[in-house]
Write a sequence for this structure.
């Protein structure tokens, strides 16, 4: 598989820099931007992204509306949500928008890396379909979930 | 044919309530009280949507949910819980659940969710069929291209054979283009459950 191209959207410079440095060192191709407008512009101008990783609480942004806008521009692209303010409501909204994962800050960056790889694989042409279930998504296999 | 729904819940009252309500709403409903029974039913029959309580007896509802997803990838899975949490909602995302139903629920809202889930199952089925046909066509076109190259080398004096074979390739390519557009339309029209 060629290098995975990831668009990272976060209004915190520290987070963007941290993710850029770490993921670039792990051979991902990273583009960062700090708001929805730039993110959509980048997605419209270029088809060259495999995954979008985005915060959902940014200045001037209404929660998950960015996900809807991304879906309008690039219907098939996997979107991973990051949030420092998790709630059942936003998690369910994210589920309904078919996001690939909902990641809570602070996060384990290695796990996030694995999530990005899984998202890119699920959407790659070789996989055949993004509608097929992943065999096991990151974290799922090793965690015990109670309800 | 009536869409088929499987209800998995260890509470008899919930199973009976949903069976009666969904039957009256035009669905064919099966029920299971525990995980093994649910898995057996999914192995034997196809369901458009599966409602799964996340606390069934001692078992982990997410294991069941994940197994159903693997056994029946087109089915839309609807986890139900009386104990909503960020963690279970996140896990529902990772298991590819279609929605997350919080108990107690209003039957009218549940009906909308189930209707959207059935539509999603049909969309997945249609998408899979289109993709399988596309894969077949791509293989066919690739095989024809190989044959065509060989013919150019060996059948220089039989142009009519080459023309007939090229027509078939063009027809396959045209069907592939049309299926590609259909796939894009299906994806754009992907249903999102009512909020």
């Amino acid at each position: 598989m060629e290098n995975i191209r990831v668009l990272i959207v976060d209004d915190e410079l520290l987070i963007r820099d941290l993710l850029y440095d770490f993921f670039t060192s792990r051979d991902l191709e990273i583009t960062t931007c700090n708001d929805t407008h730039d993110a959509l512009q980048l997605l419209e101008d270029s088809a060259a992204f495999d995954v979008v990783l985005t915060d959902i609480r940014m200045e001037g942004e209404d929660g998950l509306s960015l996900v809807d806008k991304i879906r309008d521009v690039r219907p098939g692209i996997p979107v991973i949500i990051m949030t420092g303010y998790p709630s059942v409501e936003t998690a369910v909204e994210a589920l309904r928008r078919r996001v690939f994962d909902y990641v809570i800050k602070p996060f384990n960056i290695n796990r996030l890396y694995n999530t990005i790889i899984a998202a890119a694989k699920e959407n790659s042409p070789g996989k055949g379909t993004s509608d097929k279930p992943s065999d096991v998504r990151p974290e799922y296999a090793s965690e015990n979930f109670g309800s | 044919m009536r869409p088929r729904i499987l209800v998995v819940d260890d509470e008899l009252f919930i199973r009976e309530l949903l069976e009666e309500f969904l039957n009256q709403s035009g669905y064919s409903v099966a029920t299971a009280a525990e995980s093994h029974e649910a898995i057996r039913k999914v192995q034997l029959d196809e369901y458009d949507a599966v409602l799964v309580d996340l606390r069934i007896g001692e078992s982990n509802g997410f294991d069941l949910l994940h197994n159903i997803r693997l056994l029946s990838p087109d089915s839309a899975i609807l986890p139900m819980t009386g104990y909503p949490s960020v963690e279970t909602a996140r896990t529902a995302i990772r298991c590819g659940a279609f929605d997350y139903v919080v108990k107690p629920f209003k039957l009218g809202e549940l009906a909308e969710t189930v209707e959207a889930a059935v539509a999603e199952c049909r969309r997945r089925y249609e998408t899979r069929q289109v993709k399988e046909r596309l894969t077949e066509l791509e293989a066919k076109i690739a095989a024809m291209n190989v044959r065509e190259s060989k013919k150019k080398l060996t059948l220089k004096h039989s142009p009519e054979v080459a023309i007939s074979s090229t027509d078939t390739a063009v027809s396959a390519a045209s069907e592939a283009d049309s299926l590609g557009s259909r796939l894009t339309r299906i994806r754009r029209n992907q249903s999102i459950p009512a909020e």
Notes: The longest helix of chain A spans residues 109-122. Strands of chain A lie at 5-9, 29-33, 51-55, 79-83, 101-104. The two ends of chain A are 37 Å apart (CA to CA). The longest strand of chain A covers residues 5-9.
